[in-house]
Amino acid sequence: MKGDAVFVDTNILYYAYDKLGGKKHEIAKELVSNLWKAETLPSISVQVLQELYVTLIKRGASATKSNEIVSDYFAWNIVENTLHIFKEALRIQERYKTSFWDASILASADAFKANIIYTEDLNHNQIYGTTKAVNPFM
Predict the structure, then answer these.
(1) What is the CB neighbour count within 10 angstroms for residue 102?
(2) Is residue 42 within 8 Å of 76, Cβ to Cβ?
(3) Class assignment of domain 6-134?
(4) Cβ atoms 107, 88 nearer than 8 A
(5) Interval 53-83: pLDDT, tens
(6) CA distances from 23 to 20, 39, 121 (A)
(7) Which residues have CB under 8 Å from 71's CB, separation 6+?
(8) pTM of the predicted structure, to 2 decimals
(9) Alpha-carbon span 88 to 85, nearest angstrom
(10) Distance separating alpha carbons of residues 6 and 114, to the nearest angstrom
(11) What is the pLDDT of residues 116-131, one digit of tens each?
(12) Which of 13, 37, 70, 123 has minimal CB crowding within 10 Å?
């Protein structure tokens, strides 16, 4: 992880808090803990923050607790949703045949120049442009 520009998808962050997630919870919790200690903090997008907030509430967390959790990640490198990212997501969706939302995540990772994206939603070890998808649960 040292020297890598890292982007983290929503599912990894969510599992770090999902105490009923079993092995995924343990893996995600350890990964996120290590990312907090990294030389360079990872990046996430506003989309990731929004998805995390909504998912936490949907799974039973209070709005106050969800707000506290999401707010902690304001310390990470936040990629804003821009017209450029939207246009890039359209290109990525067409090129890689992903969902639009996954393409938006990839476009945000690319905007941060991330060479690794931690996610379970994309093909493990596939290179998308210059970003490699890594599924830590594999």
Answers:
(1) 20
(2) yes
(3) alpha beta
(4) yes
(5) 999 999 999 999 999 999 999 999 999 999 9
(6) 9, 26, 17
(7) none
(8) 0.94
(9) 5
(10) 5
(11) 999 999 999 999 999 9
(12) 37
Full DSSP string of the chain: -TT--EEE-HHHHHHHH-TTSHHHHHHHHHHHHHHHTSSS--EEEHHHHHHHHHHHHHTT--HHHHHHHHHHGGGSEEEPP-HHHHHHHHHHHHHHT--HHHHHHHHHHHHTT-SEEE-SSS-TT-EETTEEEE-TT-
Structure tokens at 22: 């079993």
Q: Tokens 């994206």 correspond to what residue?
A: 117
Banded model confidence at residue 1, pLDDT cuts 50, 70, 90: very low
And the tokens for 24? Answer: 């995924």
Amino acid present at 20:
L
